[in-house]
Amino acid sequence: YNFDLNKFCRKVFAYSDACLKANDLVFWLDADARLLEPITEDFLAGLLRGSYCGVLARKGFHIESGIVGVDSSLPINGRFMRRYRELYTSGQVLQLKGWHDCWAFMCVLHELKPPCANWSPLAESHANAVALSPWVHKAQHLKGIKKYNEST
Question: Can you say whether residue 109 is alpha, beta or left, with left for phi > 0 and alpha for psi between -120 and 50 degrees?
Fold first, then answer.
């Protein structure tokens, strides 16, 4: 899982391409995420107010990137997304702890230090970061065993 480069580079290229073409808020929800209620523009704007991006961070572990958002209208966007993609095109992603988008996104966050909202400040290690965030009643991320136990 941590080293499935082919699988995760697709997500990185799809998301970075959308963010580079847009001039607005751009959110990514993994295919195994399920919305539980309608999501309003006000809710999304509130998640990014004053920040370039928003993530589900977990202390002592990588972010949960099943739900992320950026304000692609901000000047940092081009540099951030090009660097995010460059980790894969240059092979530098192979030097990270894992070759997936979570580690890559975190790498660029640490390098460029854009204003970033942590939507799950109480999450640690392998905690369900969605359940500890403003997304708790809005979405589920059917990861691991939940993916196979939930009907969709």
Answer: alpha
